[in-house]
Amino acid sequence: MQRAALFRAGDAQMAAGDLGELLVPYMPTIRVPKSGDRVYKTECAFSYDSPDSEGGLYVCMNTFLGFGREHMERHYRKTGQCVYLHLKRHVRQKVPGASGGALPKRRNAKLFLDLEISSDLNSDDFEYEDEAKLVLFPDHYEISLPNIEELPALVTIACDALLSAKSPYRKQEPDSWEEELQASKHAKTLVQLDNGVRIPPSGWKCCRCDLRENLWLNLTDGSVLCGKWFFDGSGGNGHATEHYRETGYPLAVKLGTITPDGADVYSFDEEEPVLDPHIAKHLAHFGIDMLQMQVTENGLRDNDIKPRVSEWEVIQEAGVKLKPMYGPGYTGMKNLGNSCYLNAVMQAIFSIPEFQRAYVGNLPRIFDYSPLDPTQDFNTQMAKLGHGLLSGQYSKPPMKSELIEQVMKEEHKLQHNGISPRMFKAFISKGHPEFSSNRQQDAQEFFLHLINLVERNPVGSENPSDVFRFLVEERTQCCQSRKVRYTERVDYIMQLPVAMEAATNKDELIAYELKRREAEAARRPLPELVRAKIPFSACLQAFSEPSNVEDFWSSALQAKSAGVKTSRFASFPEYLVVQIKKFTFGLDWIPKKLDVSIDMPDFLDISHLRARGLQPGEEELPDIAPPIVIPDDPKDHMANHFVESLDIDESSVMQLAEMGFPLEACRKAVYYTGNLGAEVAFNWIIAHMEEPDFAEPLVIPAFGEVASSGAAALGAVGLDNQPPEEMVAIIISMGFQRNLAIQALKATNNNLERALEWIFSHPDPEEESDPALDTMDMENNANANILSETGSEGPRIKDGPGRYELFGFISHMGTSTMSGHYVCHLRKEGRWVIYNDLRVCASERPPKDLGYIYFYHRIPS
């Protein structure tokens, strides 16, 4: 549409009265942002356009949502809102002075937009100017700002309030987002001593004690010192703080957090974590190359002298010149501060065609039917992220030198390489105590959290998460009676134990351990690392072997007995996700990681793990639940009985904790599911991960609450004859319909284990429709008007052959899930590609033996 009028300084302008008249019809729709209003002035709700983009950003003066040029019309059609604030940042090259240097800026333009300065541009050579103007739809009238004398007071106040509003991602309440880090006042003027200190890439130790964890590098003199002791068991003796008090050297960086995209920096003077915009230069002073993670001294690199064995170097393919990749499917993601776990998982997810079709293929429909606030809709944000990664719009190769020279004469146009998933992370982590923080998280735990959200927000007739779902057959045998019970459960990940006892280089490991201890005792440099080499076949064998069932109650004996359990695949998924259980707990209960090399196969055949069901000659255990003894005197005996019945199966707790879940959440999961095993407790965790008190300590009810609480835990019928909502949620999280879950629990007197058996033994249950429940479910779906019923009762599975081919893996660097860095390798167009946050390059040496989570695709028969 051609613009009807354009108001700019120096042009013939409307009289003040005329502008007032022009805005009168729109005044009721113009709002002044209040405390608590989220103002999105840096990012489009449907794309990754920003004021830096060529078309700028349009912010609605009523909803305060931001929209790129191509999505602005959609919001106008949907809401009828006509007044928008158009924001644009211009980047221009400075005019060189007579001496050849750049002249200082002559404009008095103010940088009023809360945007980051592009790291690709040298601020000494470029100048920035922010522009704001009101735009009236549908005629595209533009009114330049500031225009205080001619605009009504309400409009001026609303514009000023919007421009000065803080980021919507800043912390608003105690359980919300953490404060965004601010640049340290010492970063620009930091003095670094020229004392010749060089920091090795590994083997660090506090220079005042023997601690080797939670170490901080002082950026002034290069001292490596331990931090404070923390409640979670990590920390040190406080020597880093003590050093600051003695010297006044203000900044330190945590060793082990340095990645190509930044590091954790703390300011002792400002007493808070900070950003250091010059961190790369400050680290280079001590020989640390952020990009390569290796020491450079006298022009020689460590890998020129000896083989590199550090997992940080091997996994990131440091020291190898990697060719950057651009275009659709090769878009990087910015690290928002320990958000690499999210970046790695989402790159893998959107390499799968089913997810591409569900979200990017349905993008127009999802966007058109999105709620009035699309920033709070899961499917909209998934479609936005998928389009950002797959469109190629934000992954363009650098311009040729002659074009750059031509463009620079007029105005610099920013190249949009990579996206910042800030809006996506803010939404999917909302209310979650771990993912809503800026702390490092477990990629496997986030993967399950994402699948849970996908399950709860269907996008069409087929749910893309179905490609991961499979059925596991559990065969439990009473060792005394030899009778068996077969049950099935839903799972999304095959967890492989690390068979350390099967290492093929045991002699080398023993020799290395002796040398390491000698070096530590003599305070010499540590020997070259020797990593345990584990055959994949040994891990697969350990997975298939029977395991003991703790506290097993035999229905054949009507008493506790020894029991063993064996797991097999009742169905094989379309995409098999394999997790190597590298994380475990040390004697001090601090999570540790097993540094091992496993020869993961490119082609995997697990057909021999197919479940066979009840075999000839096997006798089933009677379908009898353990007896519940209710004492005569509830005041004297109920408390004791309740406490006894609340014995928590610590083996199940540890099994869940090893997956990366918070310890207290694992205890609650085992407790609330009546010690029915880690599998059932795992599904409880998936159903409750978003609750604010998810990781809070378990609170046992008071004796007065014992009867009701205990009954709920043990599956008694409620007063309204409805099953406990927690049990319903557990079954729904396994992929079953809500009506079927309620029907199964009612039929089995709310016994969770028997309810699952009932579901599998009733493939075609009678329909039982509850209009109130149907209405509730529809209201809970943001895109309810574009959903269609799946029509199937029971778990949705895509069974097929058990032969697979590797197409991706996620690797972790660091000592535990609470620290370190994640990267993702994916096989695309016949070659491997490494996704390391914003850096996307062709992989030369994909470290397939060091991965943490592997993605396999089924080979068609």
UniProtKB/TrEMBL annotation:
It is an enzyme of class 3 (hydrolase). The keyword Transcription does not apply. This is Ubiquitin carboxyl-terminal hydrolase. It comes from the Eukaryota. The active site is at 340 (nucleophile), 821 (proton acceptor). PROSITE patterns: UBA (PS50030), USP_1 (PS00972), USP_2 (PS00973), USP_3 (PS50235), ZF_UBP (PS50271). Residues 331-859 form the USP domain. The lineage of its organism: Eukaryota, Metazoa, Chordata, Craniata, Vertebrata. Residues 647-688, 722-762 form the UBA domain.
